[in-house]
C-alpha cells in the first residue's frame, strides 16, 4: 500500500542513501491548505444534489449519505479504481471553543492521554520553513481492523480573514521508520467558527480516506457506524476536559499564516486532484 503522485517522489527515494528527508518535495504546500479550506463549498454542492436541484446524469458517482444525525452527518464516496471509500463528516459543536478543539488535535502529548488506542505517537522531524511535521503514529483498532502503523506529514494554518482553521495530513515515507505496507492515509479537517476562535460554537468538515487492511468487508460498516463517530466524540470530550488544562496554543504559536498569494492562486475543489493528497493518487497493491 503506497501513496503516489506527490511531486518529486523519485527524488525522495534517491535521497535514501544520503539519509535525507527532502522537505522541498514532501512538505504540504499552502495551495493544498487553501484547497482544503475551499471544501466547505462542497456542502452547498451536496445540498443541491440531495434536494434534487442538480441534474446528476452522466456525472461521477455522487456522495452517499450514510449517517444523518442532528449534529453529525457522514457521506462516503468510492475511490476510483479501488473498492475503498473516501469519507466526509460534517458536524457542529456549540459547547466548546474552536481554538481549543483545534489545539487538542495538534497536541500529541495530550492525545496520548485521552486516546487509549494510541500505542506510539511522536514527531520525527519538523520543517522550519512551513511548520510541517513528520509523525510516526502506531494505533490499535478493534477487531476486525488490524493495528496500524502510520508515517505522515501534517501542516496546519489559520485564515483569520475568512475565520477558518485547517489541518492537512498525508502519508509519506521516512528513513527513521522501518518499511511498512500499511502506511497510507489522508485527512483534512476544516473548522469554521460561528463567531470567533474564542467563542463557543463552530462547524467542521473532516475528509478522510484509509485502507483498513482487513479481509473482512464488515470493517467498512464498523468505520462508518462506530469508528469515526467514536473518535469524534472522544475528541469532543477531550476538548471539554481541556478547558481546565494547559494545552499549547498552536494558533498563537503558528509561525506562518496562509498568504494572500496562496489564497488567490488556489482554485476551488475541481483542482483537488492536482498534486497533494488526493485519493485518486493512492495505489493499492
UniProtKB/TrEMBL annotation:
Record-linked SUPFAM superfamilies: Bet v1-like
Protein's UniProt keywords contain Coiled coil: yes
Region feature (Disordered): 261-285
UniProt keyword terms in alphabetical order: Coiled coil, Mitochondrion, Transit peptide
Molecular function as annotated in GO: lipid binding
Residue ranges of every copy of the START domain listed in the record: 59-244
GO cellular component, one term: mitochondrion
Subcellular location(s) per record: Mitochondrion
Top-level taxon of the source organism: Eukaryota
Keyword check for Coiled coil: yes
Entries under Gene3D superfamilies matching the protein: 3.30.530.20
Primary site of residence: mitochondrion
Job of this protein: May play a protective role in mucosal tissues by preventing exaggerated allergic responses.
Official protein name in the record: StAR-related lipid transfer protein 7, mitochondrial
Organism of origin: Otolemur garnettii (Small-eared galago)
Amino acid at each position: 500500500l503506497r501513496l503516489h503522485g506527490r511531486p518529486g517522489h523519485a527524488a525522495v527515494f534517491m535521497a535514501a542513501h544520503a539519509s535525507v528527508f527532502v522537505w522541498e518535495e514532501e512538505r504540504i504546500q499552502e495551495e493544498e491548505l487553501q484547497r482544503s479550506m475551499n471544501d466547505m463549498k462542497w456542502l452547498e454542492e451536496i445540498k443541491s444534489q440531495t434536494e434534487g436541484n442538480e441534474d446528476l446524469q452522466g456525472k461521477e458517482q455522487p456522495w452517499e449519505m450514510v449517517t444523518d444525525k442532528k449534529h453529525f452527518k457522514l457521506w462516503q464516496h468510492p475511490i476510483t479504481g479501488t473498492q475503498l471509500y473516501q469519507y466526509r463528516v460534517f458536524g457542529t459543536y456549540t459547547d466548546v471553543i474552536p481554538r481549543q478543539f483545534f489545539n487538542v488535535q495538534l497536541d500529541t502529548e495530550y492525545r496520548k492521554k485521552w486516546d487509549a488506542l494510541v500505542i506510539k505517537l511522536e514527531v520525527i522531524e519538523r520543517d522550519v520553513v512551513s511548520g510541517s511535521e513528520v509523525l510516526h503514529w502506531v494505533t490499535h483498532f478493534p477487531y476486525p481492523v488490524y493495528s496500524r502503523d502510520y508515517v505522515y506529514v501534517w501542516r496546519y494554518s489559520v485564515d483569520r480573514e475568512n475565520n477558518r482553521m485547517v489541518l492537512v495530513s498525508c502519508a509519506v515515507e521516512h528513513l527513521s521508520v522501518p518499511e511498512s505496507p500499511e502506511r497510507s492515509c489522508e485527512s483534512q479537517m476544516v473548522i469554521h467558527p460561528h463567531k470567533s476562535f474564542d467563542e463557543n460554537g463552530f462547524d467542521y468538515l473532516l475528509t478522510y480516506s484509509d485502507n483498513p487492511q482487513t479481509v473482512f468487508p464488515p470493517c467498512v460498516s464498523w468505520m462508518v457506524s462506530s469508528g469515526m463517530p467514536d473518535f469524534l466524540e472522544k475528541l469532543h470530550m477531550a476538548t471539554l476536559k481541556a478547558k481546565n488544562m494547559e494545552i499549547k496554543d498552536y494558533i498563537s504559536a503558528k509561525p506562518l499564516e496562509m498568504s494572500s498569494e496562496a489564497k488567490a492562486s488556489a482554485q476551488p475543489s475541481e483542482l483537488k486532484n492536482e498534486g497533494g493528497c488526493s485519493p485518486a493518487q493512492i495505489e493499492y497493491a
